[in-house]
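Obj.: predict assembly geometry.
Materials: sequence records (below).
Method: joint structure prediction, all chains together.
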Amino acid sequence: MKKLIFALGIIFVTASVQQSFAQCNTEKHVEACIPKLQSGFTFLKSYNIDGQGGAKDKVEYSYVFTKGATYQVMICNEGSGTDGIVLTLYDSNRNKVASTKYEGSTLSSIAFPCQVTGIYYITFTFEGSSNYCGGSVLGFKR
Amino acid sequence: MKNILLGLLAILTVLSSCDSKKKPSADEISGVLDSVKIEEPSISEDVISDIIQQIPSPLEISTLLKESETKYDKEYLNDPEKISDYNSNYKKALALGVYGTDLGYTNIYEQNQDALFYLNSIKSLADDLSIGQFFDIGTIKRLATNSKNLDSLLLITTKNFNNINNYLQEQKRSNLSILLLSGGWLEALYIVSRVSEKNPDNEELKETIAEQKVIMDNVVLLMSFYKDNDPNIKQLSDRFTKLQEEFNKIEIKTVYREPTYEVVDGMLVVKDNSTSEIIMKDENIESIRNQVYEIRKNIIN
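Observations (raw structure tokens):
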């Protein structure tokens, strides 16, 4: 009987640990982010930034950017700052195109007028983040 | 003690079966996936999802057409009344992608009355594929009947298609997602091909067609994960592979140069100093166009 109670205890603990990861409500952040896209940009994609409480140190997505279009990528999370979430954009050869960590400050948005069509990698890392949680949106204009 | 244990088990069972969003289960979906029901792909769903994420929205091409002052032409689009022709789930998934692009095109050109026809067809196909819950047709129709709501309509429909794709991938049904995206991408390529044919001197349109080479490679790659187990995807994949051979005759040369930056209103604005050159002949574009017309005819009929 003790073993059974112990097993159930384990199940409860596991469930509560999963629950704590599930507390990152990325959808809420994404919804808040969409209206913040600059005027003239059309919403294209949303990205969940869930660092699972620090268990993940990087969240990465990729997208084919097209020459002639300008893309805006924006980070949203709890409060006004970026909570240590850093967005870095790489081209198809993994050359760094831009990072929101720029000249000592961490910005929340990048505008990228693309000159070369290709796959670009959108990477989110956490630097001293307290929530490891946020959302991001991608918009474009011609 | 037994009662306590039974109670705990009951709570666990209820908790594990709870889901705040009432969506059909994977089993329910697989029940309707007659012709697209396939075995597990040999590669992980995460890898497939990553590649699917890369495929750009067909909206980008529609926007390009509008910005280049190309007139709206309903003739380019698939007839929204044709849904009864799509009698297998394979055809329905492809047609859903095609209609999704057509809807985006009507949205971009602010043709809200036409958009309503596509919305009805999309809702019907989505219901048949058990993904109709993503379309609150009442709200969408209300937005569509007022041209001032164009931004909201565009936003909602874009979000819906993104949500459908994410949902299908979560449900381990990326094969449907691939069909939806392939249909949508091909339709955008079809529209730009038709417009380019009418405007043979427009180099930007030809370049747009040529640049689809990057996406073509992704689409063929995605299909390759399923073609061995699904005869429908095999057939489609063969056609796309033939089209890819035409794209392979085009060369895209890129030169990387360090970008420069400035901060404007708290946003980092990048100046991309890299350049690219597309090496192609008119006959390459013509061959691509012809094949696109042929594949599209096969998809919509």
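Conclusions so far: Confidence is low (pLDDT under 50) at residues 6-37 of chain B.
To do: check interface contacts against the pulldown list.
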